[in-house]
Amino acid sequence: MDSSDWITLLYAGWTTIWVSGVSIVFGIILGLVVAMLRAAKIPVVSQALAVYVSLIRATPMVTLVLFLFVIAPSVGWEVDARVVAIAAMTINTTAFNAEIWRSALTSFSREQLEAAKAAGMTTGLTLRRIMLPQMLTTSLPGLVNEMSLLVKSSPAIAMIGIVDLTRVTNRIAAVTYDPLPPILAAGLLYILIIGGLVRFQRIADSRAKRLAM
Amino acid sequence: MNGIKMLWDNLDVFSVGLQNTLILFCVSAVFSFLLACFIAFLLEGRDNIPRRFVRGGLDLMRMLPFLIFLYLLYYGLPNVGISMDVWSAGFIALITYHGAYFAEILRAARTSLPSGQAEAACAHGFINSKMYWRILLPQMVMRSGPLFGNQLVCLLKDTAFLSIITLMDLTAAASAVQAKYFVPLPPFIFVIVLYWSITLCVEALLRRLGRRAQKRGLVNE
Fold this sequence. Notes:
The complex is a heterodimer.
Chain A: H1 3-40, H2 43-58, H3 61-74, H4 81-106, H5 110-118, H6 123-153, H7 167-176, H8 180-212
Helix pairs in contact in A: 1-2, 1-4, 1-6, 1-7, 1-8, 2-4, 3-4, 4-6, 5-6, 6-8, 7-8
Chain B: H1 2-9, H2 11-43, H3 49-62, H4 66-76, H5 86-111, H6 115-123, H7 128-143, H8 145-158, H9 170-181, H10 185-215
Helix pairs in contact in B: 1-10, 2-5, 2-9, 3-5, 4-5, 5-7, 5-8, 6-7, 8-10, 9-10
């Protein structure tokens, strides 16, 4: 492996990071929306979302990515593979994030809600000023954990032709006829990315514990 | 109903895929659990350099995506003279990778056990290995029931990665049928529902085990 291979590898690493990053941002927001809709107990919507969460939890990322990739043209969307990848990863991570948000939502202290009501705060204001800041702190460790799980399942997007950190090893090996060094280098980069997230999770964990006390 | 006829005509493809996925899942689940019990046994005792080494290995394994580990075994190792077929690479990858995760779950359960028990067993003359297998391990396993459930679902989902290295599993079956007719919806929906039902079965089984454990007083909640 020479320096140009390293540049290809780092570029592919950047692809993995930004595709995962976009999905994480969408996933966290949509997860909150799903959790709130489920908590609102709207008759049909609530059950449908419960099925969605349970179904996606059981669907392998590879299957989901492949499914969206082959279904998109047949329903008339001629979309980029990267859009499919982001959509699949967002659908996947939203389901897990929704569960994390929901547990924070259902375990939120009633005393605080009653106090807010007694102080004359509207529901929106209570949500924005009282609930969300605390829910974010308590669910951040879980959300970060889910981020690292998402990055670990992101190689599935290599299936549909996106040159991510996993697929790039094939590319480099096709030129050098030596697959071991690029795979090891890609593994190292993954360890750096996920190791960073794990460290972030520890920090978030200690902050959440401080709030709980 | 064209879709149902299509599924019916290709039932043999799906049944081979389902069979392969189930074989991979069950065999890897059992062996990775056994491997994890053994690793947790190695970690039992005072912290020293070999143990720190094992723990570092577990941490590294948990920071690696499954597919890159699989690539390492299947595409990387032939270069240093170790080549294996798809099945053995798949089994080795699934068992060692998820063995590391199960071991981590057991390790976390071990730290939450009260230390008095181990001391009492020691005072009764239990040697280290017997104490681990008879007293500590059963409690560690029973305490981490839900976490095992999650990890088993992850294991099931990771078997789908093996379709990338051309193993004929459930996902590969769906994509083969899709490629034959160019009608993607029925095969994929069918396969996703199959994955879902396997997951629901695993979760129901673990719930029953958990209830039994509670009845026998192995979990104190």
